Amino acid sequence: MTMKGIAAAAFGLGLALAPLATSTARAEEITIGFTAALSGDFAAFGLNMRKGLDLALAELNKKGGATYTIDAVDDRGEAREGVLIAQRFCSDQKVDVVMGYSFSSIALAAVPVFNDCKLPVLASAVTSPALSGVSPYFRRNVLTDAVQGAMMGTYAAKTLGESKIYVLNQQDDYGIGVAKAFTEAAEKAGAKIVGSESYLLGSKDFRTLLTKVRAAQPDAIFIGGFYTEAAKIAEQARGLGIKAQLLSTDGALNVELMKLGRGAVEGMIVYGMFDPSVATPATASFLSAYKAAFSEAPSAWAALGYDAGMTLGAAVELAAKDGPVTRESLNTAFGKLKDVPGVTGPTTFLPSGDRNGALYFLAVKDGTFTLAPKQP
Amino acid sequence: MSAAPPNPAAPTPAILAAEGLTVRFGGLEAIGGLDFAVARGAIHGLIGPNGAGKTTVLNALTGFVRPAAGRLSFDGAEIGGLGVAAIARRGLARTFQNIRLFGAMTVLESVLVGGHRGFGASPLALVLHTAGARAAERAAIARAGELLDFVGLGREVAGRVATTLSYGHQRRVEIARALMSEPKLLLLDEPLAGMNAVEKAEIADLVRAVRARGVSVLLIEHDMQIVRALCDRLTVLEYGKRLADGDPEAVLADPAVQAAYLGRAR
Amino acid sequence: MDYFGQLLANGLVLGAVYALAAVAFTLVYGVVRLVNFAFGELFMVGAFLTTSLMLPEVRLVGHVVPMPGFSFPVAALVAVLLTAALGVAVDRIAYRPLRRAPRLAPLITSIAVSVVLQSLAQTVWGAEELRFPEFELATYPPVVLFDSIYLSVMDLVVMASALCAMTGLTLFVARSSLGRAMRASAEDQTAALLVGVPVDRVVAAAFAIGSGFAALAGVLYAQTYGFAHSSMGFLPGLKALTAAVLGGIGSIPGAALGGVVLGLVEALGAGYLPNGTAWKDAISFVLLVLLLYVRPQGLLGRPELNAAGRGSLLGGAAEMGGWLRGVFAGLDRLLAGSSARGGAVALGAVALAAAAGLLVPSDYWLRILTTVLIYGMLASGLNVIVGFAGLLDLGFVAFWAVGSYLTSILFVLVLKDGFGVALQETWWLFYLNLPLGGLLAAALAVLLGTPTLRLRGDYLAIMTLGFGEIVRIVAINWVGLTNGPMGIRGIPAPVLFGVPLGTPRAQFFLALTLAAAVVFIVARLVRSYVGRAWVAIREDEEAAEAMGVPTARYKLYAYAMSGFVGGFVGVFYAHYQQYISPLNFSLFENIILLMLIVLGGLGTFIGPFVGAVIWIVFLQVAIDIPFVQAYPETRFALLGVILIALMLFRPQGLAASARVPLVMAGAGPGKAGRAEGAVAGRAGT
Amino acid sequence: MSGPAGIGHIVHPTAPTSHPALPVEPLLEVRGLSVSYGRIRAVEGVDLAVEPGRIVSLVGSNGAGKSTTLMAISGILPLAAGTVRFAGEDITRLAPEARVGRGIAHVPERRRVFAGMSVRENLVLGGYSRGDRAEIERDIDTLTALFPILGKRLGQAAGTLSGGEQQMLAIARGLMSRPSLLIMDEPTMGLAPQVIDLILDTVLEIRARGTTVLLVEQNAVEAMRLSDHVYVMRLGRIVHQDSGSNIDPDRVKAFYMGAEA
Predict the structure, then answer these.
(1) In which region does residue C215 sit, left (phi positive, over 0), alpha (psi from -120 to 50) or beta (all else)?
(2) Which CATH superfamily is domain A3-143+278-336 in?
(3) Where are the domains of chain C?
(4) What are chain D's partners, defined as 3 or more CB pairs within 8 angstroms?
(5) Which of A308, B175, C398, D21 is deepest in the core (most CB within 10 A)?
(6) Which pLDDT score is estimated for A54?
(7) How confident is the model at residue A5, as a pLDDT?
(8) Which residue of C has its CA nearest to D136?
(9) What integer pLDDT is reported at residue D256 of this predicted model?
(10) Mutate to test the interface with C, among A115, A134, A168, A200 (most CBs of C within 10 A)
(11) Residue D10: per-residue pLDDT
């Protein structure tokens, strides 16, 4: 990524969003402690979030008022880092807010520390229900996997009318959470779960798993996991002659899905909070600005990162009205925000720290995500 | 101590006896039906040309190789099937042909390892440094000091890393380590190899002194001058079999033995 | 039947890839007795190079770079050749200078090389998976056998290329002059030199061919699963190593057989066991452990290789980097001096740490220091088995996990969730759990240690690695017991008689107390007949045995002690972090701990802490380097480079000269800690 | 070093023993050779010369430093001091494999054949330093004529041979490089008397075919009988030397049997 590119993009975006800006903010200096897996096996999610956030901050800085800087710390997806990084941000009085987090398990280890030092956190990609209401200082702008999985379950059984579903999930908090919610909702809505099986995150070979699936002859296969595995499952399923409808989660809502899975993911239905095909002006300018800055299409993580940045901007503005922005005032401001507009829809936080929001159901068509033909 | 060695002909009960000892490596018979006995209180020489199987006999006696057949008795008990440590704990100590001291240890520590079987404090006692544990350690250190004096090194080398000593001194450490276990029989595998004449004479004196402590000795050695001077009795091996057995002078004068060493003229 | 047939076919494809990569391990191990962990990364490099060469353009370090767009065979060939050259270069730079170094040094270096290559690959190719390009063969419809067994054309190509490569290699090794020289060098290097074989060049050839095979396996794997990624080599590398050991490391037909067996067992196990896919990796490690137990040399291996690891992990000449000796001489004098006054130095160190704990103003630095203490303690535990008893253990994290899970399950899942107990009422249980976790882990250690008694050296390492992975996979999959990957949260911070010890400063002092206790207990045992027995086993197992040391029993003691420390620290760790998940106990953590003690100095009390300081502090300080902020993955690349440099110039570890006296402090009639002095009388030299 | 006659192509006009005083340029010349194992000096200041076409023996009891000397000459062990010259060239710093290329072959103590490889492969490996494949086949034929038993076992794994057969193989393997100097370390150790006779006859045969031999032999009687010149080692030094016919067997015996005062 080049700084020049971001600046140029932000300029364009700033123009597009200019009407939204109010110009009463004091010259606050806001430092964001950003942490996610930025290297190692799972760096892609964190780096995407970072890109979205960078774009939002460049735009906020352009707008004037408060200035935003990032202190980025790589957690490499290692749980041991959770506490240390949290303390690093807590101890650094310059840090006003913490953003990022790729893994619920690392956030869970960090939350007690943040809770002690009263530092607000706005996470973008961690969906574990265990994080609901975990601390008054912890918020996230994604829905929990319990909520999302249940919506998908109902959608699959009711709207799509699938009657025999095989459930696959990656063996982690995310995968287990969505699969459980999906299974319960789908069964309640009348579908039969003909089998379920889990795989370890990072698995590449699903042939055996799919051989098992094939033997159960399902109408649909739900993949509770990320795009890297979903793409491989799709491709290997086609290779084994499986023709069932593929369903997946927001973990698969990523432009990389089509790059990796190509023809095999055609027709797969996923859900998520960001839909590149919904042509609102904000989405359109985000898409073009992102493309200009990073010469690639944004993923759902980038969109959530971007929205988190914009939400922070709104909270800072709100807090600045009552004096200098502090951790505490920022935290209060987060709680008061209502329907902050964004590319993933409006943001409002529930008292539990979770976000109130809606899902899009999207299908892969001709190599892009489009609104699924059937909507609930 | 006694200037006169015990008369080998006298019916002293043997401390160690091998009957029909046979060792095979793969299909190869390294030792074939060997009989010999070491009298209590004797310095017994085991000699033979290179490759005759001397070290193999020693390895069989100490449990390093399992004999294919034969009986081994030590101090009145059968030791044939026992493991190395179990045999050692019965009082059969050895040194190695190529000195095998523990690389990173000091002289004192190495010698103390030899006294391993004398320790028995529980882990808890060790952590708490109970009086009993401390007394055992102190006694062992004192005895190690005595042994270092005994082998002629003196206590001042106790803190040196053993492998940094000269070759001759390392050999003495090895002997002290073996003696630390209070053995009844000491097996010495070429203890004089690589030493000059003065050192050899000193080690020979040491071996006599060991015997004077009441420890029997089985000695593998190539230097016949020393063997002649030191041993009460010799067993000569060739091709894994007993070639001769008896009084050193007689054995060494045996043309068959000489031929085994120097080769036969064709 | 068609289910079985499909599983069989799946297993064969996977097995073919494993077999090819296993050849790499086996070939190099045969000649230089080195388990080169970096083959996993050469596998990855081969995949990336092929993918890149086939594309019209690739984004490298963020810039779009035009590429030749070769056809698959050409790209694969070029990639294999380039990777082979890279393998030779790695050997030349990182391993050859260490041929005579202590045995662990090249092993650690190979891990460091892995870290560097992986981080560099991520810097160059990015964090996203790179799609393997479509080419004509891959677009053909699948071949369907018996109506139900689907195999893609490329699957057949994979199996055929594996078969051809293995046959080619077998012929090459059997017939060619270089192949013969390779076998001769593997059997007897001295004899090979005497007949005029240039052994260095043969080793280079082994690295070239091995790396080429790893690359070929990577290419086929990338093709089969449709991607290339910087971390793609780790698990297949581990599996290939497992396959090589299964087959009997050093044997080429063994590698082929091991690979196929592993592929089939994984496919069939995953296919027939409930939720088998999640247990797949555990299945292969269970197989490995069972096989090594009944047949330590592997299926087709030679038993003497199991004995080749005999002797000291620390031994061998340490005459490296002559000019650097001066640099370290001062340090060595200092450390050697300090080891003679063990007790005083230990008190000084604790006082210094306590002063730091009082004076460091930042909670962040307190947490860093606490982490240093935790890793230092864990490494001290591992040091008992590796550093003192000389047994290479890659499964130590299992003991750590046992302690952590014991206390977490008791506090959270049983007391809080099960009985609704208010946790502040049962604060005392934490102090009870410390020894309890230790004892449970020690019991597990003895259980796991018993079957390893027949193994030595690298075989032992692989078997313990298998144990560690099995325990971790059980922790992930046995959701009912451990809460699985969700982990256990809400573990209370320690409390002492109503005083909460949750602040970073309190936690630091608690950790310091525990660390002092751990070092004290370890030191008291090491400085006794027990420690002497351990070191004797490490230095010369046979000689120790001949001195009447029952070596098997003392190895188990070492396992137990090591396990105790792991479990003990694990209990504290859970309450410190207040959340644990299986992510905490990965193989990589074990490798880190091993690195810490090798870096610091095996078999010293201070070494684990020296290593922990370097590791933890470097990683934290490096975050602030602007370059690292822009390219996060370079932090680990940098660390890898530092590790390699340290190993090349100081293979025995930084604090190696802080030699531990093995005699009970205060046992002499004189002053405490002067046992040697007591014996030495007054004659000082 | 190559020629159609294989190992027999270098023809020396006369038996060197008949001209002991003739000043011949030595094929191998070792000066002041010292070798240490760590802090232990195993060999100290050894001088020796081997003139072409001769059999020179190094005798002495166990641990005298004979094998160490040989290993230093062929480059396996590093020298603490001294020089090694071969055929007029200083080879002190040459790699072992390069020394084989210059014409030194070393038949090591305890044979060290490649046990897992066939007899033929062992022989082919012996010719590793040569490029001429056809000639290698011819030399194998020549050598199997010299050692008929090997000819019968070409396909068999070397590890399955008897001790004597392994020794013959080790010698044949050494000869495969067409050396001008063959170093043999204890070729008769542990062998049965009939086999010893066979091996020692072979040594003579090798010399007769023109290859110079440096022999370490425990069997001192035979060594003295065979050799043109004998060096006696003790405690890492050369303590005595003379031509094979002049050397005093009793002194040598004394060194061995310890009867010397």
Answers:
(1) alpha
(2) Response regulator (3.40.50.2300)
(3) 2-305, 322-683
(4) B, C
(5) A308
(6) 93
(7) 52
(8) C177
(9) 64
(10) A200
(11) 35
Considering only CB atoms, which chain D residues are within 8 Å of B224? 256-259
CATH number belonging to domain B14-91+184-266: 3.40.50.300
pLDDT in tens, chain B (266 residues): 344 444 444 445 789 999 999 998 877 788 989 999 999 999 999 988 777 888 899 999 999 888 999 999 999 899 988 999 999 999 999 998 888 888 888 999 999 999 998 888 888 888 888 888 999 999 999 999 999 999 999 888 898 888 888 778 889 999 999 999 999 999 999 888 767 778 888 899 999 999 999 999 999 987 788 888 899 999 999 888 899 999 998 888 888 887 777 766 55
Q: Look at strands A164-170 and A192-199 and give their pairing.
A: parallel
Question: Can you tell me the distance from the alpha carbon of C441 to that of C396, in angstroms, rounded to the nearest whole number?
Answer: 10
Q: Looking at the complex, report in whole angstroms how far the Cα of residue C584 sits from the nearest Cα belonging to chain A.
A: 6
| CB atoms B123 and C685 under 8 Å | no
- Letter for the amino acid at D105? A
Rounded CA-CA distance A298/C387 in Å is: 50
Residue A323 above 90 pLDDT? no
Contact state of B64 with C663 under an 8 Å Cβ cutoff: no
Amino acid occupying residue C551: T
Nearest CA in chain D to B239: D190
Q: For residue B60, which of B52, B70, B50 has the smallest C-alpha distance? A: B70
The crossing angle, in degrees rounded to 10, of helices C177-187 and C199-225 is 110
Asked if domains C2-305 and C322-683 share a fold, the reply is yes
For position A283, what pLDDT does the model report? 82
- Half-sphere exposure in the Cβ direction for A68 (13 Å, CA): 30
Question: What stretches in chain C show pLDDT beneath 50?
Answer: 308-312, 315-321, 669-685
Superfamily of domain A146-272, CATH level 4: Response regulator (3.40.50.2300)
Q: Any idea which architecture C2-305 has in CATH?
A: Orthogonal Bundle (1.10)
Confidence of residue D114 (pLDDT cuts 50, 70, 90): very high
In this predicted model, what pLDDT tens digit does every residue of C306-326 receive, in sequence order? 554 444 455 444 444 455 566
Paired sense of beta strands C488-489 and C579-580, if any: antiparallel
> Is some CB atom of chain C closer than 8 A to the CB atom of B89?
yes
CB contact under 8 A, C548 and B181: yes
The domain ranges of chain A are 3-143+278-336, 146-272
The arithmetic mean of pLDDT across residues A138-160, rounded, is: 88
For residue range B117-129, list pLDDT tens digits in order: 888 888 888 888 8
Tokens read off for C154: 């490329």
Q: How far apart are CA A342 and CA A280, in angstroms?
A: 10
Inter-chain touch C540–B102, beta carbons under 8 Å:
yes
Residue with tokens 């919904």, as numbered in its chain = A278
Q: What residue ranges of chain B are covered by domains with CATH 3.40.50.300? A: 14-91+184-266, 100-182
- Would an 8 Å CB–CB cutoff place C362 in contact with chain D? no
Put simply, whether A206 touches C (Cβ < 8 Å) is yes
C586's tokens: 């990965």
Question: What tokens appear for A371 in the block?
Answer: 């609104």
- Partner residue opposite D121 with nearest CB, options C180, C188, C194: C180
pLDDT tier at D260, thresholds 50, 70, 90: very low
Q: A241 at the C interface (CB within 8 A)?
A: yes
Question: pTM of the full predicted structure?
Answer: 0.86
**Cβ atoms < 10 Å from Cβ of D99:** 25
- Inspect the interface and report whether the beta carbons of D117 and C187 lie closer than 8 Å: yes
Element (H, E) at A4: helix A3-17
> Looking at domain C322-683, which of 1.10.3470, 1.10.10, 1.10.20, 2.40.128 is its CATH number?
1.10.3470
Determine the topology of domain B100-182 in CATH: Rossmann fold (3.40.50)
Query: Do residue C196 and residue D96 have CB atoms under 8 angstroms apart?
Result: yes
